[in-house]
Amino acid sequence: MPQTMRVLVLVFLMTDCTKIPYNGFTS
């Protein structure tokens, strides 16, 4: 089930953005 992987990536991305102040990534 690739759905779980997709959700994980989404959560990881969100957490990464909030944890690491990467302006280029968010932009």
Task: Provide structural commentary.
With 27 residues, the chain is an all-alpha fold. It is 81% helix and 0% strand. It has helices spanning 2-19, 23-26. The protein starts with a helix and ends with a helix.
Features of this protein?
27 residues, mainly alpha, rod-shaped
Percent strand: under 5%
**Rg, Cα atoms, Å:** 10 Å
User: What profile does the largest beta sheet have?
Assistant: none
Arithmetic mean pLDDT: 70
Topology record:
Layout: H1 2-19, H2 23-26
Task: Produce a short descriptive summary.
With 27 residues, this protein is mainly alpha-helical. It contains 2 helices and no strands.
